[in-house]
User: Fold this.
Amino acid sequence: MPTLTILPSGKQVFVAEGETILQGLMAAGAGIEPKCGGKAECASCHIYIHDGRKTVSKIQRAENERLDQIIGIGSKSRLACQAKLGAEDVTVEILGFNSGI
Ligand code: FES
Assistant:
């Protein structure tokens, strides 16, 4: 079961393989309120993945289109509601959850 490390606090939670990073963040009590219910529509779950990007599911079209509309997007950007964990540990940074459009 992979470990999800959440920056800047450094809090760690175990998340089942195949679950989304958003599910892990919510289980960790990260204070996230997904405005669109996890449908890649609001971008309120924009995060940076610092470690473990290769183990996370690939970006699909809807996520890519939404990311293109976000200010502050970088090569580490993902939507936590769309990124599913693989078998290895992942470190993410919470970006304030108001970076969406
Ligand atoms: S929760 Fe809306 S895009 Fe992820």
Q: What stands out?
A: The chain has two helices and five strands. The helical segments are 21-27, 61-67. Residues 34-36, 38, 40-45, 79, 81 surround FE2/S2 (inorganic) cluster (CB under 6 Å). The radius of gyration is 12 Å.
